[in-house]
TrEMBL record:
PROSITE patterns: VOC (PS51819). Residues 5-131, 156-282 form the VOC domain. It holds the Pfam family Glyoxalase. InterPro entries: Extradiol_RC_dioxygenase, Glyas_Bleomycin-R_OHBP_Dase, Glyas_Fos-R_dOase_dom, VOC_core. It comes from the Bacteria. PANTHER family: RING-CLEAVING DIOXYGENASE MHQA-RELATED, RING-CLEAVING DIOXYGENASE MHQE-RELATED. This is Glyoxalase family protein.
Length: 323
């Protein structure tokens, strides 16, 4: 069994329309699936990705109307990386952020790459990461956007940073359960902090990277809009999900068992730092129920919810989408 890399990251938003305006209009990602939370179908579940929603390119949001602010802290998925092709793209995005008034930090070099940190309208913590010298998991193909040259478009996810009080707990999961290996570290972003540990799996590179930050002096994060709910990692098959399940059970950690999410099969568990991991299969993917040319245009429901479509659609406020 080998974890292949990052599959998707799922976060919270308080407003689906404003979320679409930021991620589709301003960042140029494609809304490849407009669906609902399968466990609570009264709320949207929006999937932004590359042109066809390839595994590893997918940033998703659950709309929770009225959810409060995030109180940042420990036991959290504290930053989501978004890949771009090269250093030139990083500089393009810095200028675009300045033009659009998007909050961002100066460009930095970390772990040998240019990084541009920024926040969305709900203070979601994000970072554009250059693949200038990257080797490893292949990137996706950006969707066409009138204001963003394709060569500068977002190509996928990675790395993802975890901030935890006891790194040893998550380190054990990454190594003994999830096939990640330590490939180095870089200096802490806070004074007197621990170096940030870098772990990669599979073919490696930004699309298969988890960064681990130990911050024992923080209180536990209180989630809200702009916080990350879980990080999902790629596996080939349901058989590999069951193999991971046995490893997790051997550590006496509870799991969800294999869950059919229609677009992929999944397994969920939390480590002792409270980080929620999902393992998800690559197949069947987002083209199973929609044509490539019309991805994300209509509300997509898994078969078991189809008979409730009328009721579900009444509960959801329509999203005005860019033509």
């Amino acid at each position: 069994m080998q974890i292949l890399g990052i599959h998707h990251v799922s976060a919270l938003t308080a407003n689906a329309q404003k979320n679409y305006d930021f991620y589709a209009d301003q960042l140029g990602m494609r809304l490849v699936k407009k669906s609902v939370n399968q466990d609570s179908p009264s709320m949207y579940h929006l999937f932004y990705a590359d042109e066809i929603g390839r595994p590893g390119t997918d940033l998703t949001f659950f709309e929770m109307l009225g959810v409060g602010h995030t109180y940042r802290g420990n036991n959290s998925i504290s930053e989501t990386g978004l890949r771009v092709q090269d250093d030139e793209a990083i500089h393009f995005w810095k200028k675009r952020f300045e033009q659009l008034g998007i909050k961002h930090e100066p460009i930095k070099t970390e772990f040998g790459r240019l990084v541009l940190r920024f926040e969305d309208h709900e203070s979601q913590r994000l970072a554009l990461v250059s693949d200038e010298d990257n080797e490893g998991v292949e990137a996706g193909v950006p969707f066409e956007h009138p204001d963003i040259p394709k060569k500068f478009g977002i190509t996928g996810l990675g790395p993802v940073r975890l901030t935890v009080p006891k790194a040893e707990h998550t380190r054990q999961i990454l190594g003994s359960v999830l096939t990640f290996e330590n490939v180095g570290s870089y200096p802490a972003r806070v004074e007197n902090g621990h170096d940030i540990e870098v772990y990669q799996t599979g073919e490696g590179g930004t699309g298969a990277e988890i960064q681990l930050e130990e911050r024992s002096n923080l209180t536990k994060e209180k989630p809200g809009r702009g916080s990350v709910h879980h990080v999902a990692l790629r596996v080939k098959s349901v058989e590999e999900l069951r193999e991971v399940e046995q490893k997790v059970k051997a550590l006496r950690l509870p799991t969800s068992g294999v869950v059919n999410r229609y677009y992929f099969q999944s397994l969920y568990f939390r480590d002792l730092n409270g980080i929620l991991f999902e393992l998800a299969t690559d197949a069947p993917g987002f083209l199973v129920d929609e044509d490539e040319s019309t991805l994300g245009e209509k509300l997509a429901l898994p078969p078991f919810l189809e008979d409730k479509r009328e009721q579900i659609e009444r509960q959801l406020k329509p999203i005005k989408m860019r033509k």
